[in-house]
Every structure is written in C-alpha cells, then in structure tokens.
Design goal:
- This protein is an all-alpha fold.
- Helices cover about 70% and strands about 0% of the residues.
- Helix 1 packs across helix 19, helix 6 runs parallel beside helix 8 and helix 9 packs parallel to helix 12.
- The longest helix is centred in the C-terminal third of the chain and has 29 residues.
C-alpha cells in the first residue's frame, strides 16, 4: 500500500508537467492558503475543498449535503495540527485506507481464505478510481468503518459492530446499507427467505436498526438547525450534478445515457458519461454473477456482500444519474470477490494491468482539475 501511495504522488508530479491545468477547483484559494505544493493540495480538490471548508468554518448554505463525521474529524484533528485542516483531512483518509484495508483483508480471509482475500485487496487497491481512498474524500474512512463493522460482526462482537455501523451512516448515506450484511449474518439456512425476514426482524431488530443510527442522528441535527431533516438530500441540486430530488427509475437513467452517447458531441464530458456508464455496468454484472454463485453454494456471507454491493450502486441512480459512479463502485465488493476467484492467473494479470493504466490516467486528470467522478 505504501508503494501505491508514493506512486500516486509521482503521478501528480508528472501530470502537472504533461496535462494542462483546467483550474476549476472549487475553493482553490482556500487550498492555496495551506502553502502546500500542487502534488499535495490537488488531492483535496472538488468535494475535498468542501470538507475542508466545513471542517474549518462549519456548515453553510447547502453544505449539509455532506455528512458530518468526516468534517468533524477534520475540525478536531485540524485544531491539534495548528488549524491545518488540509493535512488533517489527508491524514484521516490515509489512516482510514490503511486500517480499512487491513481489516477488509482479515474479514475476507476469515470467509474465503488468504489467497482470495489477497487478490480481492489487490484488485481494490489498483482499481482505476481507488486513488479516492487517499484523497480528501470520505472513501478512506468509510472503508475503515465498514470493514471494522463487518469484521466485528463476524467475530461475534455485536456491540462494536453496531457502534461502527452508526459511524458509517454518520459518514455517508450508504452506511445504512450495512443492514443487508447484518441481516444475512443472522440468516438461518433451515428457513425460507420469507421466514428468515420475520425471524431476524423479531429476534435481532436492535442490530438491524444500528446502521440507521447515524442517519437518524444527522436528521435530528438538520431538523434543529435548518428545519428540514432531509436537507442532505434536498440540497443536492445546488451542486449542479444533474441530480433530481424526484425518484428516477433505472431504465430512465439508461435512456438518458443512451441519448448522450448518440446525440452529444464527443467531448471530455462525453468520456466522463461513458466511464460512469461502463463502471456501473461492470459492477452491476460482476455483483450479479457473484450473487448467483454465492446463493447456489448457500454462501450467505457472499450473498450479503452481493446484495450490499448491488444496493450501493443502485441507490445513487435513483437521483437520475450515474454521476460519481466510478468511485461508488469501490464499495461493490462482490465485484472484487468475483475477480479474485478467477482461476486463470493470466486473466487476473491482464485485468490488473488495465486497472493500473486507467488509474494513472484518471488520477492524472483528477489532480489537474478534471472531474472524473
């Protein structure tokens, strides 16, 4: 992992020499205030600058779209680092990435053995958008909290699992989806699916509501502060990500993207839309394949991972777009488990080479101000 981190800083240095700087970072002046070179502050661009702004000055108009745990950590750690909120955010992300990777490996080794776990982690680390884990985004800390919650669950440390689940949904809305693997942890092979639903709800309802805890805490805060408990959702259109506050079905999203592909000019935005579409379908198909295999083997841990992965990528398109999907795919863990279980080592190496090349390209564009996810 350390080699990968160093490599990304080299990529940033080289990219600054080869790729024109687009110069549209939000709050660029804020990032420049911290006096770091471009190869460092560029990893705090786009959403990262919003998190720094919240961590430094608190919530302002529409900032409530960003969940509170990460900027709260930035506030606390930043005060200990002489108000260096940029460094605080990057340190939090790096810490989350390293700890999260370790416990994800331990979790998957517990269920599938070390070989599959190693390959899964390798594919996750070299995935084209995995540089977000160590950028000033929530991916790093969300990886840590999700892995810790599930690892504690399968080590039968239920209180700890519930605690980390609450923190997950204080970090990102998708934290509530931990209810899915929690349900499958208590799944009884002797019962039918409908019976299991009734059984788990009746006997383990307290564990099932734990992933909702962080969201409920944030909703209470929003009700008290702005008078709208759903303002994290209702504020989304303000960020011009083409998100709708009305429910949009998946076929409608597909239709919108097909219109882009056949009617729009071939520009950088066209390529972004294409990457969003490709990454979504890669994760969607990969998760479905893994679900079929896991369910057939009565592997209910794997089934829980597959449904968790599918929910993770199917929830955001309900707003009408695949925007940011290339980084949401980082938590479609069923895809990486499916890749890890490919038998032919040559296929694995070929996929790995493609992933590394794409990550270098996307990371280079990202640090130069091009929105890639």
């Amino acid at each position: 992992m350390l080699i990968r981190v160093i490599s990304l800083f080299v990529v940033a240095l080289v990219a600054s020499k080869l790729i024109p700087y687009l110069g549209n970072f939000p709050y660029l002046d804020l990032l420049l205030d911290y006096k770091y070179p471009h190869a460092i502050y560029s990893w705090a661009s786009f959403d990262g600058a919003h998190y720094i702004n919240i961590g430094r000055d608190g919530y302002h108009q529409y900032d409530q779209a960003f969940f509170p745990l990460y900027p709260t950590i930035i506030t606390i750690l930043g005060s200990l680092l002489g108000k260096d909120h940029l460094l605080a955010g990057l340190l939090t992300s790096y810490t989350g990435f390293f700890i999260g990777g370790y416990f994800l490996f331990k979790l998957m080794a517990l269920k599938y053995g070390e070989s599959v776990s190693q390959w899964m982690l390798i594919f996750l680390i070299i995935f084209p958008t995995s540089f977000f884990f160590t950028s000033l985004y929530t991916e790093g800390i969300f990886l840590m909290l999700t892995a810790l919650s599930l690892y504690c669950l399968y080590r039968k440390k239920l209180f700890s699992a519930a605690f980390f689940a609450i923190l997950c949904s204080l970090t990102r809305l998708q934290g509530i989806l931990l209810i899915i693997p929690f349900f499958f942890y208590f799944y009884d092979k002797k019962k039918q699916l409908a019976e299991n639903i009734v059984f788990v709800i009746k006997k383990h309802w307290l564990m099932l509501i734990a992933p909702l805890g962080g969201l409920l805490i944030y909703m209470v805060f929003l009700q008290l502060s702005v008078g709208d408990p759903l303002f994290f959702f209702n504020s989304q259109p303000a960020f011009n990500a083409n998100r709708s506050t009305s429910l949009i079905l998946l076929p409608q999203v597909y239709w919108r993207y097909f219109k882009i592909f056949f009617q729009s000019d071939f520009t950088f935005q066209y390529l972004v839309a294409l990457s969003e579409f490709v990454f979504f379908n890669l994760a969607f198909v990969g998760s479905l394949i893994f679900l079929k295999l896991a369910w057939r083997k009565q592997d209910y841990f794997g089934s829980g991972m597959a449904f968790f992965s599918l929910a993770h990528i199917l929830l955001p398109p309900l707003t009408g777009t695949f925007s940011s999907m290339p980084r949401y795919v980082l938590f479609a863990w069923a895809l990486f488990l499916a890749l890890a279980q490919i038998k032919d080592i040559r296929v694995k190496i070929g996929i790995g080479i493609c992933f590394v090349i794409l990550q270098i390209i996307l990371a280079s564009l990202f640090v130069q101000g091009y929105f890639v996810s």
